[in-house]
Amino acid sequence: MANSSAQLRRLGTELRRLRESVGRTQGDVGAAIGRTHASVVNWERGKTRISKSDLVCLLAELHAPAEVRKGLEKLREDAARGTSSWATYGLPDWLRPMLSFEEDATGVTTFEPVLVPGLLQTEEYARAIHTAGRHKVAPEYVEKWVAARMRRQQRLSGPGALTVHAVIAEAVLRLEVGGPEVFGRQLERLCEAASADNITVQVLIADQGGYGGMASNFTMLHFADPAIDPPLGCFDGPLGGHLLSDAGDVATMAKMFDDLREMALPAEDSAELLATILAEHRRKGGTG
């Protein structure tokens, strides 16, 4: 079943289309049903839930056909009943909507300048990230957060498998997170991932110099029908993260990814580099 966040966004998209089809403005219909312009904007963006009574009034004001009303009222009810299953993992508030949308996504494009992308991490590597440094995750959350990351990876196989296109900086392959053995197994995992039909890994080698986006990671989620579910962007760091839905911001992020993809080694050459670095790691005493 689709998650409530995605359902709210779909409901908002349909409400916007319905309003535009009859030539009404957000402020106009808001005033007609006794609600503010901001309320209508937030409904259409899927930012806030619309009450049953407000939806009934809105659909009546827009003269929606009976079959359209029935479908949108059911979508509102489904979204109202839905609760994010990610809440049980104790994840940050900003992250749960992103993971809910990822469940509905068909593709992910991601850039990482320092760490292996979460969808491609081993359990040991993920645990090492969450326990490293002065600002490590509270002990009571570590295993839950690691479990959440492993759950996300279930989307990489089976029917409707998620497609992933990851560009990673060469620095990712030199930072021995978790020590030689843990990092060695992570390199092996990356090599395996690079050979999967639904996963593309490209390495941005160090001699490229400066490039756009080098100060932050970022990820884009892509959906089956972009007209209904436009792409979303997100990025995160030690102090939190943000989910981006603004079309201009997401377009800028897409351009950044395209630039990085063009600068990075092709997938085949990247796979060869991964194998070479893994071999070097093994010679130094890592696992393998």
From TrEMBL:
InterPro entries: Cro/C1-type_HTH, DUF5753, Lambda_DNA-bd_dom_sf. Residues 15-69 form the HTH cro/C1-type domain. SUPFAM superfamilies: lambda repressor-like DNA-binding domains. It comes from the Bacteria. Pfam families: DUF5753 (PF19054), HTH_31 (PF13560). This is Helix-turn-helix transcriptional regulator. The lineage of its organism: Bacteria, Bacillati, Actinomycetota, Actinomycetes, Kitasatosporales.
